[in-house]
Amino acid sequence: MPSYKAPLDDMRFILHDVFHAEKLWASMPATAEVSRDLADAVLEEAGKMVEGVMLPLNRSGDEEGCTWSDTGVATPSGFKEAFQLMAENGWTALSGNPAYGGQGMPKMLAVLFEEMMHSGNTSLALYTLLSNGACLCLDAHASEQLKALYLPKIYAGEWSGTMCLTEPHSGTDLGILRTRAEPQDDGSFAITGTKIFITGGEHDFNDNIIHLVLAKLPDAPAGSKGISLFLVPKFLVDENGNVGERNGVSCGSIEHKMGIKGSATCVMNFDGAKGWLIGEANQGLACMFTMMNYERVSIGLQGLGLGEISYQNAVAYARDRLQGRAASGVQNPAGNADPIIVHGDVRRMLMTMRALNEGGRALSAYLGMQLDIAKFSDDAAARAQADDRVALLTPVAKAFFTDRGLETCITGQQVFGGHGYIREWGMEQFVRDARIAQIYEGTNGIQALDLAGRKVVRNGGASAAAFVAEVRNWLEGETHGVLESVRAPLKNALNLLEQGTATLLEQAGNDPDAVNALAVEYLDLFGLVTYAWLWARMMVASADRGDRFGASKQVVGRFYFERLLPRADVLLRQMQAGSAAMMALAADDF
Amino acid sequence: MPSYKAPLDDMRFILHDVFHAEKLWASMPATAEVSRDLADAVLEEAGKMVEGVMLPLNRSGDEEGCTWSDTGVATPSGFKEAFQLMAENGWTALSGNPAYGGQGMPKMLAVLFEEMMHSGNTSLALYTLLSNGACLCLDAHASEQLKALYLPKIYAGEWSGTMCLTEPHSGTDLGILRTRAEPQDDGSFAITGTKIFITGGEHDFNDNIIHLVLAKLPDAPAGSKGISLFLVPKFLVDENGNVGERNGVSCGSIEHKMGIKGSATCVMNFDGAKGWLIGEANQGLACMFTMMNYERVSIGLQGLGLGEISYQNAVAYARDRLQGRAASGVQNPAGNADPIIVHGDVRRMLMTMRALNEGGRALSAYLGMQLDIAKFSDDAAARAQADDRVALLTPVAKAFFTDRGLETCITGQQVFGGHGYIREWGMEQFVRDARIAQIYEGTNGIQALDLAGRKVVRNGGASAAAFVAEVRNWLEGETHGVLESVRAPLKNALNLLEQGTATLLEQAGNDPDAVNALAVEYLDLFGLVTYAWLWARMMVASADRGDRFGASKQVVGRFYFERLLPRADVLLRQMQAGSAAMMALAADDF
Q: ipTM of this complex > 0.90?
């Protein structure tokens, strides 16, 4: 069974040495009480909880899965108790709004906790993450009355939350959804329709489930401009928060999936269920999108967290498994073979995993920091800049973390040879669990389209240029000697990214298919260049530690620049090919 | 449930128009009776059998899996009857030696059949492929007596065959295996030991299972030079082929795996089991290796076959699923959305899958052709050249087919969005089933090491240079106009490959870790360049057809050169980085 230790050293290094988080927190009233010691204590306790409570249920949860019956959904043994323990200790409200009982911790800390949870038990983590998402949305858009009634209970884990978007015929294209909302005399709405792929739509953890549901009002405009958002509880709640009679919403079945089997993925039937409008009528998509940047980073972290536990176990196996002799000569004369960590091919796999994981962790913290600045800073210009950076880098993080997460989990499985394919070793579960993160919360193709279309072409590349300027600025201001070996490749990478942006803008001006056809390569280019910058920052921040941690960072950073960043070159060439060959065949010719 | 039609048009195109197989077959006595009509009829019947017999059991086989009890292994419902039907119709002996009841069809045809079987039901296919492998090995190395006794029964599907190599502590490194063979007075041997990961080690298909087992004689030299090969039947067989008493071999358990769940993966316990030596004592590995080139291509075809069925179903879904509107304007005014095949991102996925599948199919036929020449040609020089090409390209095919196979299956799953993650759609099964092919029959890292070390460095790059010369020769001899757009990139690709070989040779001369550290990138480079050549050949061979098939080939070929071949550039740069950063960390620093 896989083991896991929260990578606290690396997390502290990123928070304190790379990004000097404490200074930022001290500068903003909402986070002023978060000291370095408090942050470290939170991470340490989080690690203990994940290792002790979540991890032990990960394999059994996968084997057991969820079970549907007409009385509800049974989650795997132990999940309910684990959730309740997490709730009692405040882990379901870490970055929740303190005005309603949340812990008020910065997102920069929450992303590290979320990574840990996905390492330990991604199925169990999803229940809390969807509740967090619902809270974010309610906090931003619901009436004071709804917030006061629902937020404290969800933060406390007494109730849970879901997001109900997808319908059988309507996934990426929400504009064609069919769920209807009929206004009632009491100011509520009667919601009718079927939603699918609802994570945690039904379960046995607690007393109530609060669904946030996209639906159309009778007089709504066609398409995505006619979508409204409603709060629909499983059990109706009186004004004092007492749970009353059952609402007209039920779980019709659950999906049998490739992975995340401990997470109940539900078909939810709304049959005139009582709901309340959140935000303005016909502004439902906009309401959803205010939380999207948080949620997409969280789902990105699923890829990163699974990549991390896969890496840790691949290292342990590679140190332990004896097979063959090192090319440079016998390393383990006492045994009849050397540990496979001596072989270049195994090294290549481990170094690739590590370089991608640590680069991703740095980006997740950077993005968490930008989300915090955008939300909490007193400085309007700083908020605006952080908002711009969040908008630009969130689709990159979601797609690049999860694509690299699958790559990393596959690589970790490969280190195990045939044993990696056997369920009891657990490495194949990480692959199956990671795979969904490339699909849900907007497929990675949609993330790429969001980046290339909405975030770059729509503003003529201004946000991308501002980001490149930030990196150039950093590079010009840094004089540490360790940068000498990577300064030229980083400059070259920035040039590639600029050329990529120019290529995208130019082709988009002439060819309506160009954005769609170039987007994935552009996002990958963006991700690789961003990791390069963060690796350079990590190399500088660790250069003078004089310890093995610092020395290792230099080696892994060098590996990133030599072995992984070169992937960026090919992406520009692929983009330059344009959409012609891609779009030339008739549908019947496939 | 996924559908499948054998890609007969493409197979016939490759056989007849690209490689002019009929001319080759007519030139060799062993294949002289194989006409174009016969080959086409075999493929057509094979397609019907796969579509009608194998495919319908694929999903149910995955859901049901195999079950072990102390009386044996139960395979999924219908597998036994399907196998027997296949056997009755000669499909278990397609390329078997006619002297013992085989059909004697060329490998060039068998590879296409094997691809189909892996598309239709890779778990069921594995039982026949392992039997084929055992027959190849027996045919090449066993005594006349053993061949006469065992081959006809296995070809007929009355008995099955296995290969027993791996032990719990000994996988890649067979030199440290522990299974012992004690000589007995009657000339047989008593085999004792435990083998794991034995495909079809136990099942309920037929009357006997013939295990080919690697073991060590008492006086054997240490390491891989002390391994011998033995035939160990489940039931002892008298000299007339009658099945008698149970031998001392039994299945202790089966593995619970990520995929290929219909294939029984067995722990086999040999407890003084009676066995007979195959070939010379201490030459067991060499005996195994004579069949390795056939088997590795067959396992490569698992990746290709799964990629093909994933492609076919992704196309069907992309034509059917309505979501969003085309960037270039509404394509389906009658519906509230366009089929997703109009979107660039979906096109990118489908075109990538198709270009990789068709490139792989061409390489599989090319390799089959070389295997046939090496085995059947009257011309010693032609045999030697074909042998050289087989040795060089087999590891490329095995690893590149299966790496691209996983990529293709993941891509096909992605086309389905959330539905791709749901078991009933079947797309996720292809991913799970494809994953093992990168691991078994020598991991893809081992294939790369075989290519870079044994096949390139060991002969100073002579085989690689001969292959590049063949491609250059072809390119210089071809004058068709369609080559103009791809001549320069193909030349450039050949130069890259030459530089890759030179880099490998140079680094290998200075650094013992270099081969291991550069091998995977070198293999990928080799694969990409080889596909480029075959795509150029396909473009030429289809240029003047004047039909949609030919026009599509031009488009897909162009896509390959523009979008996929550029991946080759980065590989050389990665190789040039050498092993330093990769090998720098101490094992404890991971």
A: yes
